[in-house]
Amino acid sequence: MNRISLTLMLAATLAATIGCSSKNYVRQQTTPLINKTNELDDLTAKNSKEIKDVDQRAQAGIQGVQTRAAEVDQKALAAGKQADEAQTSANNATTRVDTLTNTVVNLDNYRSVADTSVLFGFNKDNLTKQGKEELDQLATSVSSTKGYIITVEGGTDSVGPSDYNYDLSQRRANSVIQYLASEKQIPAHKIYLVGLGKDKPVESNKTSEGRKKNRRVDVHLMTNTTGTAPAQAPNTTPAPTANNNPPSSM
C-alpha cells in the first residue's frame, strides 16, 4: 500500500513538472511573436499618421494654388474692365468734341445780345433764387430780339470723374432750359444745349473761389441779322421740352 501511494505521488509530481515546463516553453516561444506584432501595429499607426499629414499638406498646397489662380483671374478681369472703361471715356470725349463743334453749323452768323452766368452749389443741379433772377433779367431782352436763339452751356469744377462732370453739366443746363421754357415761355426749338463738363473753366480750379465760379451755366441770347434760324447739325442733342420732368437736386 505504501509502495502504491509513493508511486502515485511520483507520477503526480512528474506530471506537474512536465506541465510547468510546457507552459514555460510556450511562453518563451510566443512572447517574441507578440512583441513583434505590437511593433508592427505601432509602425502601421505611425505610417498612417504620416500619410494623413502628407495628404493634408498636399490639399492645403492645392487650395493655395487655386486661390492664387482665382486672384490672378480677378485682377485680369479688373484690368480688362478698366481698359474698356478707358476706351469708352476716350470715345465719349471724341463725341463731345464733335458735338461742341457742330451744334449749330452757322453760329458765326450770330452776334450776342445779352448773356449771363448762373452759378450752382457743389454737386447741385437745381436753380438758386439768384440764378432765377439772372435768367429773369436775360429774358426781358427776348421779346425785342428778332431771329434769336439761346445757347446754354453747362460747366463744372474739376472735382470728380470727367464722365460724371459732363453729365452734371448737362443736368445744370437742363435746369436752365426748363425754367426758360416753363416760366418764360421760350420755345424749345430756340434753345441749343451744350454740355461742357470741366472742359471750359472760366477760372483756375486750384482755388475754392475759382471752382465756385466754374460751377455754372453760361446763357447767351444771340441774334441773326438775316432773321433766319441756324442750321442744326444732324447729331445735335435737342433741348428738352417744358413738359419734361425737372432734374432732381443732388
Give a verbal description of the structure.
The chain has 250 residues and is α+β, with helices and mostly antiparallel strands. It folds into two domains: 1-102; 106-224, OmpA-like domain (60s Ribosomal Protein L30, Chain: A), CATH 3.30.1330. It is 56% helix and 12% strand. It is built from four helices and four strands. The protein has helices at 2-102, 129-139, 162-183, 208-214, and strands at residues 110-119, 148-154, 191-195, 216-224. A four-stranded mixed sheet has the order 1-4-2-3, with helices on both faces. Helix 3 links the parallel strand 2 (148-154) and strand 3 (191-195).
Task: Determine Rg (CA atoms, Å).
Answer: 48 Å
Low-pLDDT windows of residues: 93-103, 233-238, 241-250
Largest sheet composition: 4 strands, mixed
Order of helices and strands: HEHEHEHE
Identify the strand order in the major beta sheet. Answer: 1-4-2-3
CATH T-level topology of the largest domain: 60s Ribosomal Protein L30, Chain: A
